[in-house]
Amino acid sequence: MRILVGVLFALATQAAHAVSLAELLEAAWQRSPHARLFDARGDVAYAQRTAAESLLAGPPSLGLANRNDRFTERRGKWENEIELSAPVWLPGQRDARLAAAEADLARNDAAAGAARLALAGELRTRVWDAIGAGDELALARERLEFARSLEADVVRRVAAGEVARRDALLAGAETLAAQTAVAETETRRARALERLRLLTGDERLPDEAREPVRERAASHPRLAAAERGVERARAHLRVARESRRESPEIGVQYRRDRDAYGEPSRDTFAFAVKIPLATEARNRPLIAAAQAELAEADGEQWLAQATLESEEREALLALEAADRVAALAERRLAAVAEAAALVRKAFDLGEASLAELLRVLAATREAQLDLARAGAAKGFATARVNQSRGVLP
Question: What does the pLDDT average to over 341-368?
Answer without folding.
Answer: 88
